[in-house]
């Protein structure tokens, strides 16, 4: 195996890993703030894919411009999902929120399958590829990784530099105490859920620029988000980015040493092992 | 022995037996197929209820026991030429063994972590089986036609598997009731209400939880063998379909978790609804109604979770206190 292809797989893995990371970040944010495992995450990722695809292929809108629109729609959608399906059961046993979000997933996927069918789609968008010495990288993946880093930076600035961000952190620390300090916790929860699903929609939109997909693809990325979330520590948004990088590298390197179909086996075994040994994640603190 | 005289138990038993025997008397292949699907669903729901309803551990991976059992049984039939009863037992034992090995490990996780781990287990097993050569890898195992000969040909074999499913579903109801009314079941329910308190009161929670998982895994393991034997082939995508797990969850929620009647009524209701939708010719706009089966199931589930979390049986018990003596 020559060093060029090894390096290309590695960097490719890193670039894709960052994009996985942003989907997982949404999942982590939601879990961190309200202790809800959002099983509708994959469905929103699928919608993000279709959003960019439809805007690009039918209206001819630039995919990255479409992405901004998809992000706003994702935010709105998250708030609506929260108000309809989660607000009522946010204090019920965790089973209720798990099943409520799963019900939303079924509704979205069911509608999506009825409308879009499950034929594979491809945006057919390309930015060419860039050669750097022995490296050959796809432009779309490079841009996707850049967009992800930009969004992550913006999220951090929002969480740590604005008043609303401070509210979100306060609610995630202790909802009761935050309410006593006059923070409108139900609105903050809705907003946090919205931001979480917005990140899922962005991830979906970015993935659509370089992979083909169906309405059911979101599920695969949702499972990857779980693995990443557990790798980086559930509830820790920055951990998600690191977890995404780890998963990306694994996906880049493992196919070189074993058959492609064994990669998910390793990933899920890793997932279960980490859950068992250190459920707070590799980077997480003590529970 | 007094427990066996409870009218609630007999109500469920007679319902399931009536459902099971109806196609036997009508000798009609179409009703038999409907009966097969419904009894399969009932047994899946009743068995999942042991770990989810009684013990309070929500498993999204119940189908892993169904799929693995199916694979073990099909392997026994195909490669080792085992007779069907032995294969069915083998499938059940295989799944119970997996549950036993998993139990001590993943049942340490509580709440949502456990639920996540069960998804992981199902996916890990599915992707592993898809790579596992003795089980046929991604294409799975296909039975030769001659396999059905000792059972009097394929047509007769279908009836045979149906009788077996009737037997297993009746056994499932009796077994589930036995657990519910035993001291062991009391231990499970105390874990559901407050695991730490249960431990303090002397329930050896790790062992009890593991046994609950083993019991709930044994039944789907046997079912899997029967289903895939009838089907003639098994492949990873069919055997470990996460959606099937979720459907079982929906059925339990529909009927009422933790009750004996609930999962049975929920499974019956869900399957009838599904059947009606799938064969319906109605249209929504330009799309056929049957395409919206998943949407309707999702809406139904959401409404139940938001407004009647106790399910049908829970709601009836709350609304009509007199029914509490009969609906258990």
Descriptive account of the structure:
The complex is a heterodimer of chains A (287) and B (328). Chain A is an all-alpha fold. Chain A contains eleven helices and two strands. In chain A, strand 1 (129-132) and strand 2 form a beta hairpin. In chain A, helix 3 packs antiparallel against helix 8 and helix 5 (139-161) packs antiparallel against helix 8. The model of chain A has no long low-confidence stretch (mean pLDDT 89). Chain B is mostly helical and 328 residues long. In chain B, the strands form two sheets. Chain B has a two-stranded antiparallel ribbon with strand order 1-2. Chain B has a two-stranded antiparallel ribbon with strand order 3-4. In chain B, helix 2 packs across helix 12, helix 3 (63-78) runs antiparallel to helix 4 and helix 6 (153-181) runs antiparallel to helix 9 (205-231). Chain B starts with 6 loop residues before the first helix and ends in a 9-residue tail after the last helix. The model of chain B has no long low-confidence stretch (mean pLDDT 91).
Can you lay out the helices and strands and say which pair or pack?
The complex is a heterodimer of chains A (287) and B (328).
Chain A: H1 3-34, H2 41-59, H3 63-86, H4 94-116, E1 129-132, E2 135-138, H5 139-161, H6 163-173, H7 175-180, H8 185-208, H9 217-232, H10 237-257, H11 263-277
Antiparallel strand pairs in A: 1-2
Chain B: H1 7-26, H2 29-54, H3 63-78, H4 84-106, H5 112-129, E1 141-142, H6 153-181, H7 183-193, H8 195-200, H9 205-231, E2 233-234, H10 236-239, H11 242-255, H12 261-279, E3 283-284, E4 287-288, H13 293-307, H14 311-319
Antiparallel strand pairs in B: 1-2, 3-4
Helix pairs in contact in B: 1-2, 1-6, 2-6, 2-9, 2-11, 2-12, 3-4, 3-9, 4-9, 6-7, 6-9, 7-9, 11-12, 11-14, 12-14
């Amino acid at each position: 195996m020559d060093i060029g292809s090894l390096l290309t797989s590695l960097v490719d893995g890193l670039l894709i890993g960052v994009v996985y990371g942003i989907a997982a970040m949404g999942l982590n944010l939601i879990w961190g703030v309200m202790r809800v495992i959002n099983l509708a995450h994959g469905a929103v990722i699928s919608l993000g894919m279709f959003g960019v695809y439809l805007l690009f292929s039918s209206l001819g809108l630039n995919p990255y411009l479409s992405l901004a629109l998809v992000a706003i729609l994702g935010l709105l959608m998250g708030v609506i999902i929260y108000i309809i399906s989660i607000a009522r059961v946010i204090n019920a046993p965790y089973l209720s929120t798990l099943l409520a979000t799963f019900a939303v997933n079924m509704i979205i996927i069911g509608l999506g399958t009825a409308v879009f069918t499950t034929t594979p789609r491809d945006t057919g968008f390309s930015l060419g590829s860039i050669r750097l010495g022995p490296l050959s990288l796809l432009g779309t993946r490079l841009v996707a990784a850049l967009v992800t880093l930009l969004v992550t930076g913006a999220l951090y600035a929002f969480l740590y530099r604005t008043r609303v961000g401070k509210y979100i952190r306060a609610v995630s620390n202790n909802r009761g105490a935050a309410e006593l300090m006059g923070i409108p916790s139900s609105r903050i929860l809705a907003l946090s859920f919205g931001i979480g699903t917005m990140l899922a929609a962005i991830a979906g939109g970015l993935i659509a620029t370089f992979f083909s997909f169906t309405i059911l693809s979101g599920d695969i990325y949702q499972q990857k988000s779980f693995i990443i979330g557990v790798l980086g520590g559930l509830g820790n948004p920055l951990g998600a980015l690191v977890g995404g990088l780890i998963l990306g590298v694994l996906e880049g390197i493992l196919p070189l040493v074993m058959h492609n179909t064994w990669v998910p086996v390793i990933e899920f075994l890793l997932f279960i092992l980490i859950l068992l040994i250190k459920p707070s994640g590799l980077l997480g603190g003590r529970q | 022995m007094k427990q066996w005289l409870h009218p609630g138990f007999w109500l469920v038993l007679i319902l399931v037996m009536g459902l099971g025997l109806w196609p036997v008397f009508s000798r009609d292949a179409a009703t038999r197929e409907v009966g097969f699907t419904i009894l399969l669903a009932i047994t899946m729901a009743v068995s999942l209820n042991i770990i989810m309803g009684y013990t309070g551990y929500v498993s999204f991976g119940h189908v892993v026991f169904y799929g693995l059992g199916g694979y073990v049984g099909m392997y026994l039939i195909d490669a080792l030429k085992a007779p069907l009863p032995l294969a069915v037992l083998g499938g059940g034992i295989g799944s119970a063994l997996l549950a036993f090995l998993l139990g001590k490990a993943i049942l340490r996780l509580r709440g949502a972590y456990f639920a996540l781990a069960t998804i992981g287990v199902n996916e890990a097993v599915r992707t592993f089986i898809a790579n596992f050569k003795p089980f046929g890898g991604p294409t799975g195992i296909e039975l030769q036609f001659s396999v059905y000969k000792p059972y009097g040909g394929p047509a007769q074999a279908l009836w045979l598997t149906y009788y077996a499913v009737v037997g297993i579903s009746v056994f499932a109801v009796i077994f589930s009731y036995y657990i519910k009314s035993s001291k062991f079941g009391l231990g499970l329910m105390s874990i559901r209400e407050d695991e730490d308190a249960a431990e303090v009161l002397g329930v050896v929670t790790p062992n009890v939880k593991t046994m609950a998982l083993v019991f709930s895994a044994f039944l789907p393991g046997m079912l899997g063998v029967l289903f895939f034997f009838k089907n003639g082939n098994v492949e990873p995508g069919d055997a470990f379909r996460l959606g099937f797990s979720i459907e079982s969850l929906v059925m339990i929620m529909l009927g009422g978790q933790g009750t004996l009647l609930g999962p049975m009524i929920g499974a019956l209701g869900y399957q009838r609804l599904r059947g009606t939708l799938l064969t319906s010719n109605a249209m929504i706009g330009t799309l056929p109604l049957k395409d919206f089966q998943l949407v309707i199931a999702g809406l139904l589930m959401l409404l139940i979770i938001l407004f009647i979390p106790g399910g049908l049986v829970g709601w009836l018990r709350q609304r009509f206190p007199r029914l509490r003596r009969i609906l258990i």
